[in-house]
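Most newcomers find our protein records easier to grasp once they have seen one. To make this concrete, we reproduce a full record directly below:

…
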Amino acid sequence: MHELDFEQIPAKFREFLKPMMERDALDQKIIDVMAAKSDADGFARLSQYYIAEIVGTNQPMVSNHIKRLIKHGFIRQEGRGAYTVLKRDVWQNGATTSVVKYLHSVNEDGSIINLTLKEQAERTGLTVEQIQVAQGYISAFAPRTQSK
């Protein structure tokens, strides 16, 4: 699965993934603003308040998203209010994609969940970090079955 088409995601997964998709959408907007205001080397000097105004949210939310974007290698902070965009496409490189690819892999071969993380990575084409993100999200947000 190279390209991720969200229209092809079954409805039950789309609802489950909605919070993550919304988070990735805001990440993408932030990167788009940085990229639009950056020089040829991808360097941009922007305040978080400015970014928040452009993307329609508040500064603390932008700050949280920027921290995650830095952690996951999408941007690099060069100083206060100064960033370099390293990867522009959140949809193909973000958490939602990792979760969907992992779910598709497990759906195709349920035995994957019994493998080590390294073996799962080899089987799915995801990195160990992407699998951990997917498993963490699934554990936190998967609908719980009611015991009788």
About this structure: Residues 11-36 form the longest helix (26 residues).
